């Protein structure tokens, strides 16, 4: 086959175009810091990138969920802490009222304070986070105490859970109907005894009931503390997972600048060499135009 001047020119232009394309790809990599800018450039890298981003999005969502879990647990623990402090005050008042030197007027004053503490504990039973009641099980839109009585709707002893990892859920609520109604019953009895002139021995007998309720509060707080520890472990796990996936995503998509710059310099040398060789092959008029 006879090689013509036209064939040489077309071949040169084709090679130059390919060289420009390669330099253009390398330039885009340097500008964006990414190996590809279109999925068609490397479908394998693109598909892996989608998978890694999906994993990162899930980690971010689980981290937001953990923030909600912490909000529930911290608020529940704080409310129960105030309940515990209120019971300590009740214990002090009952001990004081049980002494034989207290007059009926003294006990009436103590009764008034215990009534206020009872109402305060009822309010604590209605503690909310983001318009959701913490101690009403799955009935998060209904108060535990309606101002007159404790609610008796279904779901009060059911668990509210939030997913914090694939297939992993943590209970965020504390079932409070038994605890708060039990405390309220004891305080109601104390109020009655203080008001009807019961003997000091009768009043002092409530100290055992108060101690029982205090233990119940501590048990609830211990359970919350255990869940808070688990949440902390899950936070560490998610942080580690985020670092791992981010590194995999970077290895998959980010360029090695030193390598790409070296390839760019090499490609420019090849391109210049092609221009120089082409200038000696084609006719002077076209060479002058290219120059």
Provide a descriptive summary of the structure in words.
By secondary structure, this protein is mainly alpha-helical. The chain has 8 helices and 4 strands, in the order H-H-H-E-E-E-E-H-H-H-H-H. It has helices spanning 5-32, 43-97, 104-125, 177-195, 200-204, 206-253, 257-281, 284-290, and strands at 128-129, 132-133, 161-165, 168-171. The strands form 2 sheets. It has a two-stranded antiparallel ribbon with strand order 1-2. The protein has a two-stranded antiparallel ribbon with strand order 3-4. Strand 1 (128-129) and strand 2 (132-133) form a beta hairpin. The two termini are 30 Å apart. The mean pLDDT is 88.
Q: What is the CA-based Rg, rounded?
A: 38 Å
Total beta-strand segments: 4
Helix content: over 70%
Strand order of the largest sheet: 1-2
Give me the strand/helix succession: HHHEEEEHHHHH
Question: What would you call the shape?
Answer: rod-shaped
| Tally of separate helices | 8
Q: Alpha-carbon distance between the termini?
A: 30 Å
Protein structure class: mainly alpha
What integer is the average pLDDT? 88
Spans with pLDDT under 50 lasting ≥5 residues? Answer: none
Q: What about the largest sheet?
A: 2 strands, antiparallel
| Strand residue percentage | under 5%
Oligomer: single chain
Summarize this, please?
With 291 residues, the chain is mainly alpha-helical.
How are the SSEs ordered, and which strands pair?
Layout: H1 5-32, H2 43-97, H3 104-125, E1 128-129, E2 132-133, E3 161-165, E4 168-171, H4 177-195, H5 200-204, H6 206-253, H7 257-281, H8 284-290
Antiparallel strand pairs: 1-2, 3-4
Helix pairs in contact: 1-7, 2-3, 2-6, 3-4, 4-6
